[in-house]
Specification:
Layout lengths: L4 E4 L3 E2 L2 H4 L4 H14 L5 E6 L2 E6 L1 H9 L4 E6 L6
Parallel strand pairs: 2-4, 3-5
Antiparallel strand pairs: 1-5, 3-4
Helix pairs in contact: 2-3
Length: about 80
C-alpha cells in the first residue's frame, strides 16, 4: 500500500502533453475545495533523476500553486513498463 508523502512543488515537472489539458475553471473549483477541506486526494509522481514527473493530478497541482503552497501531498509511483 502506497503512503502519501510531501513533495516540493518546484521539483515537479509537468509534461507538455499533460499541460495542454489544463482547465483553469477546474483549477479554481479545486482550489476552493482545498481551502475548505484541504487536499484530500494525493497526486501521483514518478522519479526522474533529481526531479519528479507528474503522472496524475495536474489540476490539483495547479490549484496548490495558485494558493501559494510550496508543498503537495502525493504518491511516488513506478514508471509504466511498455
Amino acid at each position: 500500500m502506497l503512503k502519501p508523502r510531501d513533495f516540493q512543488i518546484a521539483a515537479i515537472h509537468v509534461p507538455v502533453k499533460r499541460a495542454k489539458t489544463l482547465d483553469m475553471d477546474k483549477v479554481g473549483r479545486i482550489a476552493e475545495s482545498i481551502l475548505e477541506d484541504g487536499q484530500t486526494v494525493p497526486i501521483q509522481v514518478r522519479a526522474d533523476g533529481d526531479r519528479f514527473v507528474l503522472v496524475e493530478g495536474l489540476h490539483r497541482l495547479e490549484a496548490m500553486k495558485a494558493l501559494g503552497e510550496s508543498m503537495i501531498s502525493g504518491y511516488l509511483v513506478q514508471a509504466r513498463q511498455h
